[in-house]
Specification:
With 177 residues, the protein is mainly beta. The protein has 2 helices and 13 strands; from the N terminus they run E-E-E-E-E-E-H-E-H-E-E-E-E-E-E. The termini are far apart.
Length: 177
């Protein structure tokens, strides 16, 4: 990565494929307003490169982007799978009731009793809303918890922990009756 530490970077998007012969790429944005990815200025890659979006147009599952300095299909194909990061200082400060998903990764997940359930390892979204993927203490499998106030009533960014309010049988491994 570039000079800043990984904690100073936030994943903003990913290049998913080349498009056409003039160097355009397909891009998936993770910013709150997906089109805003072009407004932040240069984006950093894990390779240490700086890429800037010159033009962006929507398509059904993301965007077609023209990247400054990328002028042919070979260069565009070489960028497939490249993650695009913003430095944290480029982002607006979240409102009081907001949190960046990036900040949830690595947080301790505590049960109502105060007992540590595990650590947040990802925040997937399969279409119905964000989920917290939690690697449980002493168990190799992860558990998915809806990222909703009813399940996650408290988040303490300073302590790097969140409180879970799970239904009584939520973690039972038994078969449903």
């Amino acid at each position: 990565m570039a000079t800043a530490s990984p904690d100073d970077k936030v994943l903003a998007g990913i290049i998913t494929a080349a498009h056409g012969i003039k160097g355009e790429v397909k891009l998936k944005s993770f910013t709150a307003d997906p089109a805003d990815i072009a407004a932040y200025g240069p984006l950093l890659t894990s390779r240490g490169e700086s890429l800037e979006i010159g033009r962006l147009r929507a398509q059904k599952d993301g965007f077609i982007a023209v990247l400054k300095g990328v002028c042919d299909r070979n260069r565009a194909e070489a960028l497939k799978g490249v993650e695009l990061f913003l430095e944290r200082r480029q982002l607006p400060k979240p409102e009081n009731d907001e949190v960046y998903i990036h900040d949830l990764i690595g947080m301790a997940a505590l049960e109502r009793s105060g007992e540590r359930l595990g650590t947040v390892v990802a925040v997937p979204n399969f279409g119905a809303g964000d989920l917290l993927e939690i690697r449980r203490e002493g168990i190799s499998e992860t558990v998915l918890v809806p990222f909703a106030e009813s399940y996650v009533p408290e988040i303490d960014l300073e302590k790097r922990e969140l409180l879970l309010d799970l239904p009584e049988d939520y973690l039972n491994d038994g078969e449903p009756e």
